[in-house]
Design a protein that fits this description.
Elements (H helix, E strand, L loop, with lengths): L1 H9 L3 E3 L11 E3 L1 H20 L4 E3 L8 H6 L2 H4 L1 E6 L6 E3 H15 L9 H7 E2 L4 E2 L9 E4 L2 E5 L6 E5 L4 H5 L2 H7 L6 E10 L14 E11 L3 H21 L7 E5 L11 E9 L2 E12 L1 H5 L4 E3 L4 E3 L2 E8 H12 E3 L4 E3 L10 E5 L5 H15 L4 E3 L5 H11 L3 E5 L1 H6 L1 E6 L5 E5 H12 L1
Parallel strand pairs: 3-11, 21-22, 21-23
Antiparallel strand pairs: 1-2, 4-5, 4-8, 6-7, 9-10, 11-12, 12-18, 13-14, 14-15, 15-18, 16-17, 19-20, 23-24, 24-25
Helix pairs in contact: 2-11
The structure holds adenosine-5'-triphosphate.
Adenosine-5'-triphosphate binds next to strand 12, strand 15, strand 18 and helix 11.
């Protein structure tokens, strides 16, 4: 993880939020490469979930809603995490995560054993002097801590209190009727959304994994309210979502499903499964698939008139809810490879922030440099393209490998005569000679 965090900062993927003012816990800024990567990820999700299907439409709801939404949805009462405090060092923890980390800790060092572990665990394991492990008996009674972030609106006192959304989901439910009335969707159908959510997390950490501001990508899929349909669509979306991560290159051995026990399910879920990733800090949630039943539409007093059977009913909902930031983090982790002579991010070409880099073989030959510039301009019209004429070719390859650029094009002496360039593949490091006229199609084909 430390290597990923360092690479992310060094190359402009992710920076600590407000860094020049000592940062602010749980907030991150995405740099020039990070924003490209994130946009690619969201675009791929949207294509797979919306454009490639016939029964799914999109929405982009507001972040701030009337507080009555959160009252009806149950979030003001039940969107809580269990909070405990250590009476000795006053650190606060999420009790369920505390228990989980301890299990892991004992596995690593044995009961009673104390050993220096990776920095990211220190807070949770150690009390006061970083030598003694926390003790269960020093923890306060568990309290329910609400994760919603309050905001105050208006110019006169008392200001109107509302919330930054804790999940993007409710924006879909409150627009259910609008969408049914204004588009031609018929059950079964889905509404997809990508957007920011905010949670006042007790223990933000593990880089962007648990942030206070993050993005979610969600599908709410509305079905007829019966058990058979529920089972069918729950299992359909479980498999579809797992397939998406694999299609974009996450190694199968690093993915698994984990069903939620009844006592850990969110207040809205009839049943729930997580897609988990084998991360450097243990198996961790990528995305949740939830059977929300009719919980939300009933709370908002919304129904659906089925034109086929001319009956009114409250549909059930199967939800797939993933985090953009978590996905990005795990795609980075999974793609990170250290080889003998290089660090390489083996990102799926569709996710790679830069698709192709163009180099003049030498920088002191005018003809070569100007040819390289013209190839760069040509490619830039179609792909995110970099130009690099610093140092030697070997160093330029290494710099592109480290950010996952799938192709590097070099303009050399032969280019001037034969109009061909070399194109080097990031993973195999093999080079081919390709005619400049064919370059665009060559790269397009490889990218798809
Ligand atoms: P956790 O148990 O890790 O707190 P959760 O089960 O509460 O997560 P959901 O409410 O199901 O999470 O949210 C759906 C998705 O949103 C998660 O799978 C995750 O990818 C993302 N997500 C949730 N909380 C955060 C967070 N604090 N930081 C980054 N992503 C998050």
């Amino acid at each position: 993880m430390e290597k990923i965090v360092a690479l992310a900062k060094r190359r402009g993927f992710i920076y600590q939020g407000s860094e020049i003012y000592e940062g602010i816990t749980g907030f991150w800024d995405y740099g020039p490469l990070g924003v490209e990567f994130k946009n690619n990820l969201k675009r791929e999700w949207w294509k797979y979930m919306v454009y490639d299907r016939e029964n799914i439409v999109g929405i982009d709801a507001a972040i701030i809603m009337n507080p009555k939404v959160w009252e009806a949805s149950g979030h003001l009462k039940a969107f809580t995490d269990p909070l405990v405090e250590c009476k000795k060092c006053n650190k606060r923890f999420r009790k369920d995560k505390f228990d989980e980390y301890w299990e892991d800790f004992y596995k690593k060092v044995g009961r009673g054993g104390v050993k220096a572990l990776s920095k990211q665990y220190e807070d949770i394991y150690y009390c006061i002097d970083r030598k003694n492990p926390h003790k269960e008996e020093d923890l306060t009674q568990e309290k329910k801590f609400n994760l919603m972030t309050e905001v105050f609106l208006g110019v006169t006192e008392p200001k109107q209190k509302t919330y930054l959304r804790g999940e993007i989901t409710q924006g879909v439910f409150v627009n259910f009727k609008n969408i049914v009335d204004s588009s031609r969707v018929k059950i079964p159908f889905g509404i997809a959304q990508i957007g920011k959510a905010f949670r006042n997390e007790i223990t933000p950490g593990n880089f962007t994994y648990r942030s206070r501001e993050f993005e979610q990508m969600e599908l709410e899929f509305f079905i007829k309210p019966n058990e058979k349909e529920g089972e069918k669509w729950f299992s359909f979306w479980k498999e579809e979502r797992m397939k998406w991560y694999k299609l974009l290159g996450i190694k199968s051995e690093n993915l698994r499903f984990r069903n939620h026990e009844q006592d850990e399910r969110a207040h809205y879920a009839r049943f729930a499964t997580d897609i988990e990733y084998k991360s450097p800090f243990g198996w961790s949630e990528f995305e949740g698939i939830h059977h929300r039943g009719d919980f939300d539409l009933t709370n908002h007093n919304l129904k659906y008139k089925d034109p086929e059977i001319e009956e009114e009913y409250t549909p059930w909902v199967i939800e797939t809810s993933g985090g953009v930031d978590r996905a990005m983090l795990f795609f980075l982790v999974d793609a990170y490879h250290e080889e003998e002579k290089r660090i390489v991010l083996k990102l799926h070409p569709k996710l790679a922030p830069v698709k192709v880099a163009v180099f003049p073989l030498v920088r002191n030959k005018k003809d070569i440099v100007s040819k390289a510039k013209s190839v760069y301009k040509m490619l830039k019209a179609h792909f995110v393209t970099a130009f690099d004429d610093r140092g030697n070719i070997g160093k330029r390859y290494l710099a592109q490998d480290e950010i996952g650029t799938p192709f590097c094009v070099t303009i050399d002496y032969e280019t001037l005569g034969k109009q061909t360039v070399t194109i080097r593949d990031r993973d195999t490091m093999k080079q081919e000679r390709v005619n400049i006229d064919k370059l665009e199609d060559y790269i397009k084909e490889k990218l798809t």
